[in-house]
């Protein structure tokens, strides 16, 4: 049997700008002819030629991508280039190397390559079709081609099968079935390719459409679950994430299989998609492929996670520019998330069409289909809606046009009846968004229904998310529409702004339903006493609604609230409460995490801003849900403890029970309680150890910890230890506590902080006190790394060993920090302008220095060492970080115990501190401010050191 030559494939001049096909073929022939006596010996020359052609072609594809920005164009060019290499490799093998063969073979592309799209780092998926059992000739040809591709450095997925084997395997394996669905002829025998396609269509596709659809949708749901089940992660996976390329592939597979079409454009002809929706599909596909191709080109590998460093590079490559309130990378990522949302819209529309087709299918095929088996029935009090096969649908196609309020009522009815949505209803919603105009936005009934949805005692976040995904929420509240898909370019925020706000509402609802008692014992009780839950829910939904504007988003958000609340039907009193909460929504977090809560002026100033217990309660709840909704791992028990301390101290002051005059009495009361707790100690020994603690320690450390610490100090004294450490794990607060008892020294904080950094321990809190004996009692809290206490204790032992070695002089701090940072590249992803703020208004007794800059290992050690060099005494400090940013606040005096009041001294301090801060930007800010610093919401660290006298 005569084998079918490769050039049975018609010459393709598809993209001459990246490769001249005739010249390429001529080059291959020249190589063969130059080694005519032994074609195998020409392999090295052929391989080098293929590598050169591939490299040059891909570089040209990259250049064109940079010029025109077309992702699909780039993916098709690379795929076409790969076709030409395969065609020439097959031709060389069958014409020159194994020309005596007497069989046929067909090479087809499958997978992504079968769709004629390849990213620079994509796998090359091939199916070698045989007419029968594999022969020596076909085996040698396949191996020759594969080894050429592998030696070129390409990742190749391949299978060699007969048509019978393909059909048999595809009946039992959905992955193989999907691969064959995308089969595309490259070269060789066209007869084999046509036989496979004909049999595949007749024996599988024709009769198993519903089965395939159900499997692909279930596969998609499982993939979404693995990626966090949200398309709004700030570092999304462009290929596998929700709303990414794989979702578009799923749409492609389903439509091609179920409707038996070859091209997505055929769906317009069938009436499944409108022309506008098909254009949306094309734009989404082109954009996502552009992003993916840039990622692969920039990293030189198949990188599909759009990390922060890649976001900046891709945004620049695609030509995004900064605008007031939004950086170029944030504008790019907003576009990305809008595209991901459009993919979700297309999925809903397609699913609605599929269910219409599947209505006649036999029930019970799959779980996905069987849930639609119920009959349509009317819903009491909602004539325009029906329950269709277990979900909410519209009674007719004219429901929204006849009464646009139904666009809001639909979600209210779903909430009241606990129903999910029929895809057809959401398809009609998406196609009716133009009906949401100013008349509907100001309609009293529409706003009443929206407020009922938001404050529902069932699951308001679910309905809000459905409203957002369908586009209703952003159209009904245009201010919300501006922050849909908006990301914040930082490691601290895990979600887009709109997703963050909806998650915050969901957390508030779960707290109100008593589902967060263990995590939030204080607000679990407080929320039951709130006088106006409507105002609280509205404030939670709107607190970040002004993000992305040049104006401070808290101030701008309060203005938005004053506009929207009356529209929602809220009273002037409610409106003012919502506006106040939004204006102050960062204040409590800032004070708790960046200020000394034992400084009376901190509490006094905060109480002056809050003014009432009702405001205090609502602000605490808003603060908690705001931090909780930032992302997984951001909230921990330690932050809750700081907020509880601030709440209780402020509550006492607002109730008239706290004043600086009672400090002496409170100190004595604390000392008496400690003495009572040590009642079984000998009296002389008890009195000695009780008197060794100063007022700040007695007022800020819980009695249980005072007892532990005092016993620890006594044990160290009995063993005559100059240096002692103690470890305790705390799973509730998600921290591990390390207590150090050592001789006091001006640089002790710097040494301990540096040792922790060298050991890789992230400090979240530290309390540092000096005892009457002149020794320091330092309690360091580090982030917990292991769930198991035994594992965490072993880790803590490593950290304490590092601290002991540094303090005892066995290891030099600069050396161990240098070892830890050796080989690490400087992070240029984030740019934070270094800032130093010096204020004498935040404390009656201390000058407050606040430092803001990019975090790095050893930073705290360097800063505290510099403060010691400047002859400043640190009375207390907060070391706070969120994401890549660090904010350190130090309460200091000069060596005489006075504030730093001279401008020249303040300028010197600022300049010296700036010199050791990361210099990501040449021009940092230095501010000498008389007032309060702008509120921030990081995670905090407390360091305490008392004055010299008890």
From TrEMBL:
Domain ACT: 737-814, 848-930
Pfam name, any one: ACT_ACR9_3rd
SUPFAM superfamilies in the cross-refs: ACT-like, Nucleotidyltransferase, Nucleotidyltransferase substrate binding subunit/domain, Poly A polymerase C-terminal region-like
Coiled coil: none
MF annotations from Gene Ontology: [protein-PII] uridylyltransferase activity; phosphoric diester hydrolase activity
Means of activity regulation: Uridylyltransferase (UTase) activity is inhibited by glutamine, while glutamine activates uridylyl-removing (UR) activity.
Protein EC: 2.7.7.59, 3.1.4.-
Record keywords: Hydrolase, Magnesium, Multifunctional enzyme, Nucleotidyltransferase, Repeat, Transferase
Cofactor(s) the protein requires to work: Mg(2+)
Residue ranges of the region described as Uridylyltransferase: 1-378
Catalytic reactions of this protein: [protein-PII]-uridylyl-L-tyrosine + H2O = [protein-PII]-L-tyrosine + UMP + H(+); [protein-PII]-L-tyrosine + UTP = [protein-PII]-uridylyl-L-tyrosine + diphosphate
Record-stated family: Belongs to the GlnD family.
Notes concerning its domains: Has four distinct domains: an N-terminal nucleotidyltransferase (NT) domain responsible for UTase activity, a central HD domain that encodes UR activity, and two C-terminal ACT domains that seem to have a role in glutamine sensing.
Entry protein name: Bifunctional uridylyltransferase/uridylyl-removing enzyme
Organism, as annotated: Rhizobium setariae
């Amino acid at each position: 049997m005569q084998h079918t030559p490769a050039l049975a494939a018609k010459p393709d001049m598809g993209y001459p700008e990246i490769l001249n096909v005739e010249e390429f073929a001529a080059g291959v022939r020249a190589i063969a002819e130059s080694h005519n006596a032994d074609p195998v010996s020409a392999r090295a020359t052929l391989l080098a030629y293929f590598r050169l052609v591939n490299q040059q072609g891909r570089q040209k594809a990259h250049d064109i991508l940079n010029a025109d920005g077309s992702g699909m164009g780039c993916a098709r060019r690379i795929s076409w280039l790969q076709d030409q290499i395969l065609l020439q490799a097959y031709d060389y093998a069958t014409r020159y190397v194994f020309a005596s063969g007497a069989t046929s073979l067909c090479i087809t592309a499958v997978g992504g390559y079968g769709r004629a799209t390849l990213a620079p780092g994509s796998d090359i998926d091939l199916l070698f079709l045989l007419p029968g059992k594999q022969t020596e000739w076909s085996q040698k040809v396949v191996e020759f081609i594969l080894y050429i591709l592998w030696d070129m450095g390409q990742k190749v997925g391949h299978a060699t099968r007969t048509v019978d084997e393909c059909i048999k395997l595809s009946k039992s394996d959905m992955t193989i079935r999907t691969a064959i669905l995308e089969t595309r002829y490259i070269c060789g025998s066209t007869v084999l390719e046509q036989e496979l396609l004909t049999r595949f269509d007749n024996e599988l596709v024709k009769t198993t459409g519903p089965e395939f659809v159900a499997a692909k949708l279930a596969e998609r749901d499982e993939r979404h679950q693995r990626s966090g089940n949200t398309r709004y992660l700030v570092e999304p996976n462009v290929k596998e994430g929700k709303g990414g390329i794989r979702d578009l592939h799923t749409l492609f597979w389903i439509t091609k299989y179920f409707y038996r079409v070859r091209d997505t454009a055929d769906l317009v002809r069938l009436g499944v998609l409108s022309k506008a929706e098909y254009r949306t599909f094309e734009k989404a596909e082109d954009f996502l492929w552009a992003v993916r191709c840039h990622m692969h080109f920039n990293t030189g590998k198949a990188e599909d996670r759009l990390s922060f460093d890649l976001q900046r590079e891709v945004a620049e490559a695609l030509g995004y520019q900064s605008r007031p309130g939004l950086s170029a990378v944030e504008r790019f990522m907003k576009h990305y998330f809008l595209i991901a949302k459009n993919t979700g819209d297309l999925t809903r529309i397609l699913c609605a069409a599929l269910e219409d087709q599947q209505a006649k299918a036999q029930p019970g095929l799959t779980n996905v289909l069987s849930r639609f088996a119920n009959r349509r029935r009317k819903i009491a009090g909602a004539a325009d809606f029906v329950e269709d096969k277990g979900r909410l649908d519209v009674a007719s196609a004219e429901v929204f046009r006849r009464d646009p309020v139904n666009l809001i009522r639909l979600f209210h009815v779903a909430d009241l009846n606990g129903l999910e949505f029929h895809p057809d209803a959401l398809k009609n919603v998406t196609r009716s968004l133009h009906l949401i105009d100013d008349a509907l936005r100001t309609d009293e009934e529409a706003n009443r229904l929206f407020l009922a949805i938001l404050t529902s005692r069932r699951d308001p976040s679910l309905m809000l998310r459905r409203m957002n995904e369908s586009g209703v929420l952003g159209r009904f509240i245009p201010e919300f529409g501006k922050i849909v898909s908006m990301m914040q370019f930082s490691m601290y925020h895990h979600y887009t702004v709109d997703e963050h706000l909806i998650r915050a509402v969901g957390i508030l609802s779960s707290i109100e339903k008593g589902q967060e008692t263990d995590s939030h014992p204080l607000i679990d009780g407080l929320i039951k006493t709130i006088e106006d839950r409507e105002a609280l829910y509205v404030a939670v939904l709107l607190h970040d609604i002004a993000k992305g504007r040049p104006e401070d988003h808290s101030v701008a958000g309060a203005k938005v609230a004053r506009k929207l609340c009356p529209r929602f039907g809220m009273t002037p009193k409610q409106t003012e409460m919502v506006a106040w909460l939004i204006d102050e929504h960062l204040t409590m977090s800032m004070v708790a995490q960046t200020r000394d809560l034992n400084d009376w002026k901190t509490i006094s100033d905060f109480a002056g801003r809050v003014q009432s217990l009702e405001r205090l309660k609502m602000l605490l709840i808003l603060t908690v849900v705001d931090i909780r909704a930032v992302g997984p791992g951001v909230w921990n028990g330690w932050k809750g403890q700081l907020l509880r301390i601030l709440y209780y101290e402020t509550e006492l002051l607002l109730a008239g029970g706290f004043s600086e005059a009672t400090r002496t009495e409170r100190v004595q009361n604390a000392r008496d309680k400690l003495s009572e707790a040590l009642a079984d100690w000998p009296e002389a020994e008890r009195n000695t150890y009780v008197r060794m603690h100063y007022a700040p320690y007695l007022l800020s450390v819980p009695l249980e910890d005072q007892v532990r610490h005092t016993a620890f100090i006594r044990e160290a004294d009995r063993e005559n230890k100059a240096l002692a450490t103690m470890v305790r794990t705390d799973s509730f607060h998600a921290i591990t506590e390390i207590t150090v008892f050592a001789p006091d020294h001006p640089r002790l904080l710097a040494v301990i902080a540096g040792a922790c950094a060298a050991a890789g321990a992230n400090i979240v809190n530290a309390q540092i006190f000096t005892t009457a004996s002149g020794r320091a009692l330092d309690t360091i809290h580090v982030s917990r790394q292991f769930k198991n206490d035994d594992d965490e204790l072993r880790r803590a032992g490593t950290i304490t060993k590092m601290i002991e070695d540094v303090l005892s002089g066995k290891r030099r701090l600069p050396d161990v920090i240098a070892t830890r940072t050796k080989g690490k590249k400087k992070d240029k992803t984030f740019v934070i302008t270094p800032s130093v703020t010096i204020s004498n208004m935040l404390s009656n007794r201390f000058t407050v220095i606040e430092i803001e800059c990019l975090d790095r290992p050893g930073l705290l050690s360097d800063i505290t060492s510099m403060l010691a060099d400047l002859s400043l005494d640190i009375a207390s400090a907060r070391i706070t970080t969120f994401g890549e940013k660090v904010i350190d606040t130090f309460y200091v005096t000069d060596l005489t115990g006075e504030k730093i009041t001279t401008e020249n001294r303040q300028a010197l301090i600022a300049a010296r501190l700036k010199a050791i801060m990361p210099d990501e930007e040449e021009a940092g800010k230095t501010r000498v401010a008389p007032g309060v610093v702008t509120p921030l919401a990081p995670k905090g660290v407390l360091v305490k050191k008392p004055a010299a006298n008890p």
